[in-house]
Amino acid sequence: MSAKQILITLMMVLAFFAASSLVLAAKMPEQVSLDSMVALFDGVEFDHAMHTDLGEDCSACHHHTTGTGTIDERCVRCHADSNEVASVGCRECHLANPFSAENINREALDRYQFHIDTPGLKAAYHWNCVGCHEEMDGPTDCQDCHARTPDGDDFYHHDAKGLSAVGKSGH
Amino acid sequence: MKSLIGWGAKPVDSHVNEKTDQQWSLFRKLMLGLTPGQYLGQALRNPFNWILGIIFAIGLPLIAYRFIFGLSVVTHSSNDYPWGLFLGFGLFAMVPLSASGFMLGTAVEIFGRHDFEPIERLALLNGLLGYLFAVIYLMVDLGQPWRLPYPMVVSFGPAAVLFLVAWHVATYLSVQVAEVSVSFFEWIGWLGGKRFIRRIAIGLTVAGIILSTLHQGALGALFNYAPGKVHPLWYSASFQWIHFFCSSIPAGLCMVIAVSTVVKKTMAWRCDDNFKDNLDRCTLGLAKGASLALITYLAIKMIGIAHDNEWGYLATGWGAWFLFEMAVGVILPIILFAYAVRHQAVNLARVGAFVTIFGIVLNRLNTALIAFNWQLYQEVPHIFEVIIAVTIFAIYVVVYRFILYRLPIIFSWKEQPQEALAAEAARPAPIKTSTAPIGAMYRKID
Amino acid sequence: MSGVSRRRFLAASLAGCAATTLAGPKKALAAGSFKGYPDGMGVLVDMTRCIGCRSCEAACNKEQNLPAPDRPFDDKSVFDETFHGGKQKRRPDENAYTVVNRYNPDDSDRPLYRKVQCNHCNEPACLSSCFVNAYTKTKEGAVVYNSKVCVGCRNCMVACPFNIPGYSYSSAFDPVVKKCIFCHETRLKNGLPPACVDVCPQEALTFGKRKDLIKIGHQRIQTHPGLYLDHLYGEKELGGTSWMYLSPVAFDEVGFDPNPGNEPIINNVKDFLGTVPMVLAIWPAMFTGFHLLAKKKEHDEHNHDVEKQHDEEGGDQ
């Protein structure tokens, strides 16, 4: 190969990678809005880009839905070679209202579904996020990730000023 | 009162004032034939009334306080110990002590033991007042006492043991009112009423036995709802109701002995010769019955422990407390009664009766309050609860005394000749037994 | 009493017995037990998931219009509160239908939290003991109460093996029982999960049909070996409850009674209730018999009427 040919090949390879990373970047959001509990807590602007930079495999959060396989030993048996799904976002499988009548009856009727105990959206976020945060010294308190709205403060009766019963007899 | 009688006053014991030959008015009957001034004087001179006065001065406002501000101001408002002293003492202890009504009624009317007739009316009155005041204690304890009739008329929960208790106590109260009304009708002079009741006396008595067996047992069965909460030595899955029913027998009999002792000591002026002469003999007879029932109770308690294999609990602190209750409340009276009956020592039998009453009250308080929730903390009733319980008991004593002073319970009402003849015609013929000791009640007055 | 004519005596006894027969309960007690309505709902409480945030307490307070609490619902110091000489943790009462308590068992490296509320039993003790039928087990599975007929006897509080019902002692004129009602009126009837389940961020509370939750509970135990104790508390206990629990440690270390038995509380009184009609049937004849036997007969060959004639003619007196 002449120098010119090598250069062109190199540039094509580079272009390919640039293009494919651009393509991948288009699918991976920089930020995700998590706002299913806006009544009580402000929405969270989740920094997806920062989390992907942490170097963990996609399956650490997305299970086997991104096509990159999974390493969880309980899932591997069935999902070792799972394909990417149409939408990788959490909401598709982890329902915002997991206990609505419709969802309960749907799960009950679907005899061939193995996953009869799929957590809802709120639980999915919390289990996925908080566990890792605890290990990696990330935010763990409720308000570290989502501040409470004034309605939320009322809900928790934040301004209750009664006496504590610690050390009292109970009579 | 004794001194007034010493000066010549004679308490009313017939419809006609012997001195003036005129009918007593109701008011004068209530005043025992004294003038209001004399009556008030003797009441004020009585030291017992001073004690009562102090109790009422403290207790009656507290009772009003409870009804105005709710149970939270006189109890500890415990959600773990919902039943306190009002039910633990007022209902669970007073009901077995009032079992005398059906016991003596059965003995006299069913088994024909007319030798107990001198104290039959006292036993019936004891039963009536005991149940009446158990209901009053209940009214003070219930969250919404005005809804007391609800299980009768508004909403039925027939599978509940308490439903049975409610219906039976209501029915039994009616039976007892009917039985005591005989004395009342004599007092106010309506012999028609008296005759009617005497005609259905057997039916009333049988009804009384049925009702009493069931609700004395049902009060025990109430604790079957809480098997884990009552300490095993006081709880028997199979026999709880039998234990409660069986222990109500000595309770009722001993309460009669106790009340008659108090009556003899404090109201001897009111008792007639029939009562006074037969009291010792009746007391020993009751003591015999009570000791038999106590021995039976001891046996069935031991059977209960054996049945559930609870012997190991006897070696614990609770076991020691249980042994104390059995030793003092059951075994000691058996010994006292046995000696008393053998040696005709009536006063010892009386002591035994008071000890038995202590034992029964202790047993009920243990089951309902002390050994209840034995695995949780120990609850001590609020002082206001104690004061109100004492106050209501004082009211019970006052009502008891009021009736005993007036109605022919411990004395015989002297009827007029023409009334006596009419009554005689309607009465059943006298029994021809050789032991007719109370002939005066049935013989024509010449 | 020997002069009473037979006719009069029987009539009187019948009258007395009729009075008592009307008074006694005559419920025919079925031999079987109730396993819950087929579509009854339930909640699975997973103690490995609860973090003690007390959002469920806050949600219940709001949903049921309960009074404002003394301490904020995000105040974790309440877990240190004990009563009655340190022996009791918090419990549900008239102002709080549910509470969360913290436990620090030895075989757990982190604190465990337990949500306490009415367990909505299949055969509730409260319902069995209520003499005005104030409690109802609805077909959705909730055990609800009718405060309009409640007399305030508090027998249900004695009967409940979990010590759940509270009483509004503080009310002078309308004190009634207060307990979790599974949000029946506001949510369950309309097919919605109760407020506490809805708000839980950790989904420690799983809502569904009771029969499905049993399967889910056992599947969870199976698919997480070693995480849970192999027991679904409430599946069989006391006849089965609608609210069931999974725990990583032994249940008595987190405040449960480990052996309440599998019999519903009502079974403890069935024997007595069955005795009642026996007594009603046997006692009249037995005691009438005693009475007849106890009366002495001087003249064996005479009947009652002849005897009475003798007496009225003057007799021996």
- Report strand order across the widest sheet of chain A: 1-2
H and E order of chain C: HEHEEHEEHEEHEHEHH
Question: Could you say which structural class the secondary elements and strand pairing of chain C correspond to?
Answer: alpha+beta
In the residues of chain C, how many domains can be counted? 1
Main beta sheet of chain C: 3 strands, mixed
* CATH class category label of chain A: Alpha Beta
H/I helix tally of chain A: 8
Question: Percent of residues of chain C in beta strands?
Answer: 5-15%
What's this entry about, in short?
The complex is a heterotrimer of chains A (171), B (446) and C (317). Chain A is mainly alpha-helical and 171 residues long.
Secondary-structure blueprint of this entry?
The complex is a heterotrimer of chains A (171), B (446) and C (317).
Chain A: H1 3-27, E1 31-34, E2 44-47, H2 48-52, H3 59-62, H4 73-79, H5 101-109, H6 121-136, H7 142-145, H8 150-155
Antiparallel strand pairs in A: 1-2
Chain B: H1 2-6, E1 16-17, E2 22-23, H2 26-30, H3 36-45, H4 47-69, H5 85-88, H6 94-97, H7 100-110, H8 117-141, H9 150-153, H10 161-188, H11 191-199, H12 201-221, H13 240-266, H14 273-307, H15 317-343, H16 346-370, H17 383-406, H18 417-426, H19 439-442
Antiparallel strand pairs in B: 1-2
Chain C: H1 6-23, E1 41-46, H2 55-63, E2 99-103, E3 112-116, H3 125-129, E4 135-137, E5 143-145, H4 155-159, E6 166-167, E7 177-178, H5 195-199, E8 205-209, H6 210-223, E9 243-246, H7 267-294, H8 304-312
Parallel strand pairs in C: 1-9
Antiparallel strand pairs in C: 1-8, 2-3, 4-5, 6-7
What does this protein look like?
The complex is a heterotrimer of chains A (171), B (446) and C (317). Chain A is mostly helical. Chain A has eight helices and two strands, in the order H-E-E-H-H-H-H-H-H-H. A two-stranded antiparallel ribbon of chain A has the order 1-2. Mean pLDDT of chain B is 91; it is low at 433-446. In chain B, helix 10 crosses helix 11 and helix 10 packs antiparallel against helix 12. Chain B has helices spanning 2-6, 26-30, 36-45, 47-69, 85-88, 94-97, 100-110, 117-141, 150-153, 161-188, 191-199, 201-221, 240-266, 273-307, 317-343, 346-370, 383-406, 417-426, 439-442, and strands at 16-17, 22-23. Chain B is globular, with a radius of gyration of 23 Å. Chain B has 19 helices and two strands. Chain C has helices spanning 6-23, 55-63, 125-129, 155-159, 195-199, 210-223, 267-294, 304-312, and strands at residues 41-46, 99-103, 112-116, 135-137, 143-145, 166-167, 177-178, 205-209, 243-246. In chain C, a hairpin with an 8-residue loop joins strand 2 and strand 3. Mean pLDDT of chain C is 88; it is low at 23-30. Chain C has a single domain, classed as Alpha-Beta Plaits (2-Layer Sandwich), CATH 3.30.70.20. In chain C, the strands form four sheets. In chain C, strands 8-1-9 form a three-stranded mixed beta sheet, covered by helices on one side. Chain C has a two-stranded antiparallel sheet with strand order 2-3. Helices cover 29% and strands 11% of the residues of chain C. The longest helix of chain C is centred in the C-terminal third of the chain and has 28 residues, at 267-294. The interface between B and C is large, with 81 and 91 residues.
